[in-house]
Amino acid sequence: MSTQLVFDFFDDTVPTFERTVIGRNAELVAALQCVVQTRDGNPLPAAHLYLWGDSGSGRTHLLIATAEFAQRHARPVHYFAAEHFAGEALPETPEAILLLDNVQRAPPGLQHALFNAYNRARELKQRLVVSGDAPPLRLALREDLRTRIGQSLVFHVEPLDDAQRLGFLQQWAQARGMRLERDVATYVLHRIERDPRRLAAFVAALDRRSLERQRPVTVALAREVLAELEAEPLRDESGLSNKE
Questions:
Q1: Shortest CA distance to 206 belongs to which of 197, 218, 194, 195?
Q2: DSSP secondary structure string for all residues of 188-229
Q3: 14 or 222: which leads in pLDDT
């Protein structure tokens, strides 16, 4: 079973809450931070969280930011993308945060493991944060697991609007020490998938190309990078790997 998170999200920039354009998700972000910071007692209406939204809404970004926040606060944390889960059980680390992404893709073995994890979470003082692409009742999972997930504090992840996506692009560029002018960012937003993962991948690629060629960040350079990204598949949704 994997026990150590290894951050490897689009090179050297890992999503954090500080580098997240929250938009209409302030209550959700506050709840995620509360889950990490609270070890005793239960200030939330439910012990666990479930967040859902369409592909590209930023669910994975928020889970990775939660993992980073937990590590900074010395809280044990385990992240898994359901489609890549290969174990037979989820970790029983006391007081750990268990993050499971894309639960709608969970195979039967993982569904069983997740149901067991919910059952023992109270004894172990664990918190589960699960993400999916639909509300609990619409998930194509076993009925008892859907019920467990539905007992969580449920949040709909609100996607960013165009102005917020513009801010996201410029914020990620600034984090890498790169100035992204508004005309370049606007050009990109009209020609790229608006998934935060794809936007972050673009910023990293643009930064590398600018440094390699010693060229300023212009619309022309952005056009070259976009053409290359269109030919590449998006990297693993998690952006994290689990190290044995």
A1: 218
A2: HHTSS---HHHHHHHHHHHHHHHHHHT----HHHHHHHHHHH
A3: 222
User: In whole angstroms, what is the distance from residue 43 CA to residue 217 CA?
Assistant: 47
Structure tokens at 114: 């997740």
Q: Please give the structure tokens belonging to residue 204.
A: 């990293």
- Distance (Å, whole) CA 164 – CA 101: 24
Which pLDDT score is estimated for 21? Answer: 73
pLDDT tens-place string over residues 151-195: 999 999 987 778 878 888 888 788 788 888 989 988 888 888 777
The rounded distance, in Å, linking the Cα atoms of 84 and 12 is 22
Q: Are 191 and 226 in contact (CB under 8 A)?
A: yes
Distance separating alpha carbons of residues 74 and 56, to the nearest angstrom: 29
> Position of tokens 């919910």?
118
Whole-angstrom Cα distance, residue 10 to residue 205?
9
Burial code (b: 16+ CB inside 10 Å, e: under 16) for 156-182 equals ebbbbeeebbbebbbbbbebbebebee
Each residue's pLDDT tens digit, 33-61: 999 998 765 555 568 999 999 887 889 88
Cα separation, 95 vs 33, whole angstroms: 15
Rounded Cα distance between 154 and 173, Å, is 32
- What are the angstrom distances between the C-alpha of 168 and each of 100, 206, 208, 224? 24, 15, 18, 21
Alpha-carbon span 78 to 179, nearest angstrom: 34
